[in-house]
Every structure is written in structure tokens, then in C-alpha cells.
Design a protein that fits this description.
Elements (H helix, E strand, L loop, with lengths): L14 H7 L7 H5 L5 E4 L13 E8 L4 E4 L5 E9 L2 E8 L13 E9 L4 E8 L6 E4 L8 H13 L12 H7 L4 H9 L4 H32 L10 H9 L7 H16 L4 E6 L5 H14 L3 E5 L3 H14 L5 E4 L5 H13 L4 E4 L13 E7 L6 H10 L4 E6 L5 H7 L4 E5 L10 E5 L4 H13 L3 E5 L7 H19 L5 E4 L5 H12 L5 E4 L12 E7 L6 H8 L10 E5 L5 H12 L3 H12 L1 H5 L1 H4 L13 H16 L10 H9 L5
Parallel strand pairs: 5-7, 9-14, 9-15, 10-12, 10-13, 11-12, 13-14, 16-21, 17-19, 17-20, 18-19, 20-21
Antiparallel strand pairs: 1-8, 2-4, 2-6, 3-4, 4-5, 6-7
Helix pairs in contact: 5-6, 6-22, 7-9, 8-9, 18-19
Length: 671
């Protein structure tokens, strides 16, 4: 027998039972070895005085009352008896398991596994143990038609086959010595049937390191290959002209902005293909850094393109680039433009008279031909797929790529989700910006808030109202927004114009409403969450979010970032009556900090990486044993050591690392 033999080859298992295991992705004997339990039941008997309320535990005692079965209703019954442990007498109940009565003998020693209820001094039984079993019993994820017992039986059969000794070591000896790791065979055995907790912890440490190390080896090797691509552009920009432009800015760059700009410029000049993510909180000044990178490309005689998700954002960026570089020819390209204007822009892009181009998806249409494209910047990177980036690469001579996002991604996830990219982070706010004051109020206090808003409107300010979010129900979202709009129209009457925007509207309708709000034709804008990331309305100073506890922290922070864009003091009001602790924690976190990175870390702790990114589409793998949040220290160490190995250009020829290459090839990661 071999590790790759089907489960049916094991003693006591036929093709039918092996078929069931396929539901869990278990096909071979090796698969059984590597299918780890997700937790353990501790079957070590405990004293009644050690137990916490609600704890699951094993209690051993002498049976002091006979078993009594009471029937109530169809197929419903309760078996009850008492055991004595020292001086303590404990009531034990089993529901709908009358057949256990035969095992309860007066005067016998009995071990019961169950849930402790301190108030009643009672144990709700789950299992009668004839004698106290092994201290730790594995619990596996199972599927319909597969019981824990059947899975444990199969795994035990795999161990009995003696094939564990054929399981190859997957980590280099040097790393095992450095981190004092168990061998792979020892770790696999201890993951399923540990001698004690200490041995299990060592096994878990080894398994987690192995998973995270190979994940990082993949990313680091990919990154190194990108770096070594000699087909990248060498953008020989004019440093003097660029520094003159930086000096002429109406504000000094923050240290974080300067650092990010230097990292981007170094990539552009390097000759390796740039693949960088520029991360910065709302209002941290990412756009000016992107603009300076575009200017650097211009001084090297190259065109640059900035692609954004919506027409209103494209117009906004077009305006700011035109103001920043009045002597350059900046073109706007969107699907909503008049045909003649569009044609003129496309001619200028093709003949090279246009220096910078801003637009939506129109930038990658077949009809658009670039003269000499050297730099591509995409804003809000998660909206653009890999295919669109590939089209851009083909339109120019493999231009450098910079992505920008205003969604603060915790460092924990940035090195994971964007591991093959270099990440620049602007984690400082420009001097002189007034922090947004955030308040959390209950629904009962809404009248007071509306009265205060009257005062803000009198100061010529504008207000956003975000209508509550109903999960997966656009119809309900719309209904709520319409109702809220009507309430505000009734409340403010002639003193303010209240506009309404929602997801069912066409893009040009939404753009028109947003432009009217920007031009102060309306004072209050009621919206579902469709209000666009990045849209700049400097005069809007109040953001009211209804039922704020229905939003995640990252979303709340994004919405709050719609205000605070001018020089007036801005406010975010969270209206919420949270029903649980998580909701309350979210509200408190929002009031306590305006730092998006701090909030993103909090969000990660509360929700987990899968919920923030949607694990499947984000490219973040689901690990068997490792957890990106809990095991961040191991992830960092794995990243560091993988980076050190890959930094040596000849690492693939080094005899120490042959086991890594063999493992990567086996997984299909290296051709």
C-alpha cells in the first residue's frame, strides 16, 4: 500500500464508505493523515469546584440514585439520576437517550461528559464514558452521512497501516533547527492523537508554520520574478523639475507622503516592472502623490493614465490635475462625453499631444490608442480585475502599475492579500486638518440632533443622511430611504431642499443629483450607501448614519470620510440602538478614533478576514490550521525567512532548499 492509494484500500473500508469521504475532499490515505481536527474535547475528569458555568467537562462520581426516565410528548423523554463526588451531589440529566438507563448502576463509578449548570448544580449529559477515556479526543469537521466515529475509525486505520513513516519531510532541516520544530511525521501523529496538551501545542506550531511558510514562499517568489522582469520601463524622470513642482505645492508633504513618493519614484526608475499598492486613509493625500508620479512620467516624455470607477470621480480628478499642472495637456475620457469631444481627446492621446489622461473604463476600450503610455494608476483597486490591468499592459509598452485604495487594510492582511505587490502606506494626516468629531446617539435623541442640524444649516453647511442598510434587500433599502426623505422634507419644510439618491437610479441620474449637491442646489442629501467613495463636497460638514450598527467599521469609516473635506469643523452622528455587544463595540470604536488603520484592525478582530474580504474572491487562502489574525507573529516570521531565502538569486540551486522546491512543484506552484 502507498500513501496515494484510495481510502478503499484500507482494512475495513470498501468503495461505498470511501465515496462518502469524498464529500470532505478526502480521497487518499495521505488525505486522511492531513485532515486535522479543529478542536479537542478534554476528557480529563474535573472536580465540581473547578467548573465554570456553561463549561463542557467530564465528571466522575458514584451513582447514588437509580436512573429514572420520564416521558413527555412524542419521542421526548428525560433520563435523570444523581452522582456523588466527594461531599458534592450532582444531578445529571440526559434528554431523549432512554437506552442509557442500562448503563446506570447504583453504587457504580461513572464518568459523564456534559455541560455544567452552576445555578442548578446540575450536569446536562452528552455522553456516558464507561471509564474515563483518553484525556484529549479530536473533533473533526464532518459532512452529512459521515459521523465523527466513522471518520476517527478511518484515520485510525490509516495510522494502523504503518504508512505514516512514508510521509515525506516538507521543511528544510535548517528551519526546523532554527525554530525547534517537530518533524512532519511527529506533528501529524500529535495533531490527531496527542499525548498531552504540551505535545499538541508543539504539533500545531509546526503545522501552522509550514502552512504560512509555503504561502509566503509562493508570494515572495512571485514578487522576485516580477522584480527581475527586465521588460519593465526605465522611467528617467527629471528630478529637478519634479522637486520644483513639490516645492510649489500650496502645502508641505507629510513624512508619510514623501516616503511613499520616493518608493514609487524608485520603482519607476528601476527598470523592473512596478506593481505597487498605495494605501491611505480618506483625506491622507494619496491623490497628490499619484499626480506627482504622473508628472514624473511626463518629465521622462511618457504619457500616464488614471482610471477611476465613476464619471463624477473622473471629472473631479481631471479638475484637480488641470489646476495642479496648468501648463500640461490633460484629457478626460468617459462614456458620457459628447462624441466630438471624445474624438478630439482620442486623437490627442494617439498623437502624443495629450500628456495625462483621466477616465473610467473607457480608457481600455479597443478604440483608444496611446502614443507612449508609461504609467497606469487605478483608483479603488478592488473595482478593477486582473484582465483590465492586462489590457492596460498591452496598450502601452508594459507600463508601470500603481494602484490606490482608500480602504484601510490592516497590515496583517495587506501583506497577505497583496503579498505579490509592494505596499506604500500613507498613515499620517496633513497638518491643519480638523479631525471629524463623532457622536453616537440613540434613536430617542434624534429630535435633538435634527434641531442641532438646523443650526448647522444656518451656518451655510450641508448634510448627508445615510439610510439604514437592510442586508440583501435593495427594495427595503429604497423603501427606507424614501420614508426618511419624506420625514426630513416634512421636518425642514421650506428651510432646506432635501434630495434623494438610491441604488435603483441610473448612473447619470445619480451624477446629476451629486453635482447639484456639490453646487449647493440642495442642502440635505438622503442616500442609501451608494454615495461614491472619494467624491469631494468641501461644504458638506455633517454625516448622519441611521441604524449605524448595521454597518461594519470599515464601511462606517468610509462614510464618515465623505465629510471633513473643507476647512470647517465636521461631524459624524451615528444613530443606533445596538442589540448586542459587537454593535456597541463598533459604535464606541468609531467615537474613540478617526484612524482608519486602527479601525480596520478592530474590524478584523470582530469579523475575521473572510468577512472583510470575502475569502473566495479575494485570493486569501483558507488555511487548515493557521489563522491570519491569531497567528500574525508566525506569518511575519514566515514572511521574513521566505524573503531571505528568495533574496538569493541562486536559491533554487542551493542544496539546503531542495525540499522547498520539491514541495512547491508537488503542489503545482512552480513549473
Amino acid at each position: 500500500m502507498k500513501l496515494q492509494d484510495p481510502i478503499a484500500a484500507l482494512k475495513g473500508f470498501g468503495p461505498k464508505s470511501a465515496e462518502k469521504f469524498a464529500k470532505l475532499g478526502l480521497f487518499t490515505i495521505e488525505d486522511l493523515f492531513l485532515y486535522f481536527p479543529f478542536r479537542y474535547e478534554d476528557f480529563k475528569s474535573k472536580s465540581v469546584f473547578e467548573l465554570m458555568d456553561g463549561e463542557k467537562a467530564v465528571m466522575t462520581g458514584t451513582v447514588v440514585t437509580p436512573a429514572n426516565v420520564q416521558y413527555y410528548g412524542f419521542k421526548r423523554n428525560r433520563l435523570s439520576f444523581k452522582i456523588k463526588q466527594g461531599e458534592a451531589v450532582i444531578a445529571v440529566s440526559f434528554f431523549n437517550q432512554p437506552y442509557l438507563a442500562d448503563k446506570i448502576e447504583l453504587g457504580s463509578e461513572l464518568a459523564v461528559f456534559g455541560k455544567w449548570e452552576a445555578a442548578k448544580s446540575a450536569l446536562t449529559g452528552m455522553k456516558v464514558l464507561a471509564q474515563v477515556e483518553d484525556d484529549m479526543q479530536p473533533v473533526y469537521h464532518v459532512a452529512q452521512g459521515i459521523s465523527q466515529a466513522a471518520l476517527v475509525k478511518a484515520i485510525k486505520a490509516a495510522f494502523d497501516s504503518g504508512l505514516l513513516s512514508e510521509l515525506r519531510e516538507s521543511l528544510p532541516q535548517e528551519l526546523m533547527d532554527k525554530y525547534r520544530l517537530m518533524t512532519r511525521q511527529e506533528a501529524v501523529a500529535a495533531m490527531h492523537f496527542p499525548r498531552d496538551l504540551a505535545v499538541y501545542k508543539q504539533a500545531l506550531r509546526r503545522v501552522k508554520f509550514e502552512e504560512l511558510f509555503y504561502f509566503q514562499m509562493n508570494l515572495q517568489a512571485l514578487k522576485a520574478e516580477n522584480k527581475s522582469e527586465s521588460n519593465g520601463l526605465i522611467i528617467s524622470y527629471d528630478r529637478e523639475k519634479l522637486e520644483d513642482k513639490v516645492s510649489a505645492l500650496p502645502f508641505p508633504l507629510t513624512d508619510a507622503q514623501r516616503r511613499s513618493l520616493d518608493e514609487i519614484l524608485a520603482d519607476m526608475a528601476s527598470g523592473s516592472h512596478m506593481n505597487r499598492l498605495l494605501q491611505g486613509d480618506v483625506g491622507s493625500g494619496k491623490t497628490v502623490i499619484a499626480s506627482l508620479a504622473m508628472y514624473a512620467a511626463y518629465t521622462a516624455g511618457l504619457q500616464s493614465a488614471l482610471m477611476v470607477p465613476t464619471e463624477i470621480l473622473a471629472e473631479q480628478h481631471f479638475q484637480s490635475l488641470t489646476e495642479l499642472f496648468p501648463d500640461l495637456n490633460v484629457a478626460l475620457l468617459t462614456s458620457g462625453m459628447k462624441a466630438a469631444v471624445k474624438r478630439a481627446a482620442m486623437t490627442g492621446i494617439a498623437d502624443g499631444s495629450v500628456d495625462m489622461i483621466v477616465g473610467t473604463h473607457s480608457l481600455i476600450q479597443d478604440a483608444v490608442s496611446y502614443h507612449n503610455l508609461g504609467l497606469v494608476i487605478t483608483d479603488e483597486q478592488h473595482r478593477f480585475g486582473v484582465n483590465q490591468r492586462r489590457v492596460f499592459r498591452e496598450k502601452g509598452n508594459n507600463p508601470d502599475v500603481l494602484m490606490m485604495t482608500a480602504t484601510p487594510i490592516p497590515r496583517t492582511l495587506a501583506i497577505t492579500a497583496f503579498g505579490e505587490m509592494d505596499v506604500s502606506i500613507i498613515d499620517q494626516m496633513p497638518a491643519g486638518r480638523k479631525p471629524i468629531i463623532t457622536r453616537w446617539v440613540k434613536h430617542q435623541q434624534l429630535d435633538t440632533v435634527l434641531n442641532w442640524i438646523k443650526g448647522e444649516l444656518a451656518k451655510d453647511s450641508q448634510v448627508y443622511f445615510i439610510s439604514p442598510l437592510i442586508e440583501e434587500s435593495e427594495a427595503m433599502d429604497l423603501k427606507n430611504a424614501v420614508a426618511l426623505h419624506q420625514e426630513l422634507v416634512d421636518y425642514f419644510g421650506d428651510s432646506a431642499t432635501v434630495a434623494l439618491m438610491h441604488g435603483r437610479m441610473k448612473n447619470d441620474e445619480k451624477d446629476a443629483i451629486m453635482q447639484d449637491f456639490k453646487k449647493r442646489k440642495s442642502q440635505i442629501l438622503v442616500s442609501t450607501t451608494v454615495i461614491e467613495v472619494g467624491v469631494n463636497v468641501p461644504n458638506a460638514t455633517v454625516m448622519v448614519i441611521m441604524d449605524a450598527d448595521r454597518f461594519g467599521l470599515s464601511q462606517l469609516h468610509q462614510l464618515r470620510g465623505r465629510v471633513g473635506r473643507g476647512d470647517k469643523q465636521s461631524y459624524a452622528i451615528l444613530v443606533a440602538n445596538p442589540k448586542n455587544e459587537t454593535g456597541k463595540k463598533r459604535m464606541t470604536a468609531m467615537v474613540d478614533t478617526t484612524d482608519g488603520f486602527v479601525l480596520a484592525e478592530e474590524d478584523l478582530k470582530m469579523r475575521g478576514s473572510g468577512e472583510i474580504f470575502g475569502t473566495r474572491q479575494s485570493g486569501i487562502p483558507e488555511f487548515k490550521a493557521a489563522d491570519l489574525i491569531e497567528d500574525y507573529a508566525i506569518l511575519e516570521e514566515a514572511r521574513k525567512v521566505a524573503g531571505q531565502i528568495v533574496a538569493d538569486k541562486n536559491w533554487k540551486e542551493d542544496s539546503r532548499w531542495q525540499v522547498i522546491l520539491a514541495n512547491l512543484a508537488e503542489k503545482g506552484n512552480f513549473d
